[in-house]
Amino acid sequence: MVKATSDPQPAPKQQGGVTCYTCVNVSDNLMCNQYAIDSPCPAGEDFCHTLHIMDSTGASVIVNKKCADASECWPLGVGCVLVDTQTICVSCCDEMYCNVTVPTNQSNAIYTNRRTQHRTKVKSAHPSNSLPNQSTNSAASALCLLLVLLKSML
């Protein structure tokens, strides 16, 4: 008769990782979520980044979802901008599968960081939605958002 003399080793725990829906250049959110690859984000990529482009009627044109690091996900890097006839919205969050939905307006194009319990909404970069005394801040936010959008599309 053989006796087991060693204690079983517990499986290693995942240290604070996040898992996001991921897709590249799909036509809508349902398609993205149905065919998303289910794998944890790499170390250092602690956010779910979502880019949503809509036409003038609000219909989805492109959905991109990915894991991202803090250089791509920060409070001034989220929000919505109007470019020609399309609205481009970006959101970032850091909880498991938190990017199940896509941002469609300023109310849900947000940055959420559960580690500091910080939730931020950024004013629209579209001039008609900016307050007169915030025009400098809105212009800076719009520029930051456009730079983040361009970087995420490369």
From TrEMBL:
Membrane topology: Lipid-anchor; GPI-anchor
Keyword Cell wall biogenesis/degradation (UniProt): no
Record carries keyword Disulfide bond: yes
Compartments it resides in: Cell membrane
Gene3D superfamilies: CD59 (2.10.60.10)
Gene Ontology CC: one annotated term: side of membrane
Molecular-function GO term, any one: acetylcholine receptor regulator activity
Keywords, in A-Z order: Cell membrane, Disulfide bond, Glycoprotein, GPI-anchor, Lipoprotein, Membrane, Signal
UniProt protein name: UPAR/Ly6 domain-containing protein
